[in-house]
Design goal:
Blueprint: H1 3-58, H2 62-73, E1 80-85, E2 90-95, H3 105-113, E3 117-123, E4 126-136, E5 142-151, H4 152-204, H5 218-291, H6 296-323, E6 331-334, H7 335-349, E7 356-359, E8 366-369, H8 371-388, E9 392-400, E10 403-410, H9 420-424, H10 441-451, E11 455-460, E12 466-473, H11 475-481
Parallel strand pairs: 7-9
Antiparallel strand pairs: 1-2, 1-5, 3-4, 4-5, 6-8, 9-10, 10-12, 11-12
Helix pairs in contact: 1-2, 1-4, 5-6, 7-8, 8-10
Main location: membrane
Protein name: histidine kinase
Transmembrane segments: 6-30, 165-184
Length: 482
Amino acid sequence: MGLQPLLTLYLVLPMVIIYALVTWFGLAFVKQMANEKLRSDLELVGRAIRLPVSEALAKNDLTALQSNLESVFSIGRVYGASVFDKEGKLVTFSGVTEKDLSRSNMAELVVQTGEQQDGYRSVEGRDVYSYFLPITDRHGEVSGLLQITRRASDFERSFDKLARLAWLSWAGLVLVTLGILFLGHHRAIGRYVSQLVSSMRRVAQGDHKHRATESGPREIRELINGLNQMLDSITAAEAEISAHRHQEYLLQEQLKEKEKMAAIGQVARGVAHELGAPLTVIDGRAQRLSRQTDDADSLRQLAAVRGQVKRLTRMVQQLLDFSRHQQVQTEKFDITDLVNQAVENLGYEMLIDSCKIDITSSSAQMLIGDPQRLELALINILRNAVQAAQNAVTIHWHQVAESLLIHIEDDGPGLATPQQSEKLLSPFYTTKNQGEGTGLGLTIAAHIIKDHRGELSLGNRKNGGCRVTVRLPLPEHSEHES
C-alpha cells in the first residue's frame, strides 16, 4: 500500500470520524438548547397571561378569556391557546387545540401537583409542543388549565436546516483536510519519494553510474545519501572483482606462456643434444682440412664453414639460454653494428641475392643490452622478412621520446588479417609450407625483446607489405627502469 493511502487510513479517517462525532454531539446539544428555548418562550407567554386568564375564569367571563387567548395567538409563535377547567373540559380556545383533556395524564398531573408540564403531543394529526400551566383562584386552588401549543415543524425545519449546514460544513472540512493532506504530502514528501523511486528504477535497469540528487526533508536526504553510498560501494566492489578477474586472466595467460616456453625449452634441449655432436665433428673436420691445403679459395670456404658452425653453436646456446629465462647480460653497443652483423650472418645461411636488404639509417645510437641475443632476434625477424619479400627488405630506425624504433619492412603480400599478428607471435604458428618453418622464430624474437624491456609489433605498410617494429628503451631510460 502506498504512503498516501496509509496516511488516509491512519490519519485522515480518524480525523473524519472525530469531526463527525463532534458534529453529531453538537447538533444534539443545539437541539437540546432549542427545546429549552422553546419551553422558555412558551413559559414566558403563559406566565404573562395566566393572571388575567385566572381572573376571567373566576368571573366566568368568556369574552375576556377569548380576548386574552387571541392576544397570545397574535404573537405568531403560538399555534394554539386554550383554557380548560380542572376536569379537563374545554372552556374556550384560539387556534388549533385539543377538545378534551379529561383523559390526559399530563393535564391530571398539572391539576394534582400545581406545576407546569410540557412535551410533544399530537393535535388533530399534527405534532405540536404543548406547555401546560395551572390556573389558580385567589385562594391558590387550581381552578383550570392553560394550554399553549407551538408547531413542532417550526423547530424541526430550523433544526433540519441547521443539521444540513453542519453536515455540509463537515463534508467541506473533510475535503479541505484531504486536499491539504494530498498537497502537503506531494510538496513535502511525495515528489522527493517519486524522484528516489525513479532513481532506484534506473539503477535496477542497469544504469549503475546514476546517482540520486539529494533534496527534500532531512530523512529523505539521509535515504538518498544511503542509496548513493550503497551504489558507490557496489561499484567499488564490482571494480575490485573486475580487477581480480583481470589479474586472474593475466595469471592464466602467464601460465599458458610458461607452458609454451616449457615446450620450447624441451625442443631446444633436444635440438642442442642432437646438433651438439654433429657440429663438433663438422668443426673438427673443417679445421683438419684447412691444415691439409694451401689453396686460398678452399681455406676461405673452410673458414666460412667453421664460422657457420660457430654461429650455429652460439645460436643453440642462445636458444638454451632463452628457454631457461636467464638474466640479460648488459653492455653498451651501437645499433648500426648490431644491424650490420645480423645482416652479414644472415647471408651465410641464406641465398639473399634475389632479395636486396637496404639499411637506410646510418645514425649511431648506443643501446644497453645483450647484443648476441638481440642479434638472434633481428636475424629471426630478417629471415621471415626475406622469405616473404618479393624484391627488397628495408631497415631503418629513429628515436621517439625515450625509445628507439627499428622498422624492418618487406614488399611481400603482408598480413592477411590484423588478428594474424598475434598468432605469428605465438609458438609453433607458421604460415610457411610444411617442413619450411618451426613457428619459433618470431616467438623467440618477441621474448628476447621483452626481456630488454622492449616491444615487438607487426602490421601492414600503406603501400603493401609487412612492417615489423621493434621498440627498445634508450640507455638513460633503460638505466632508470633498472
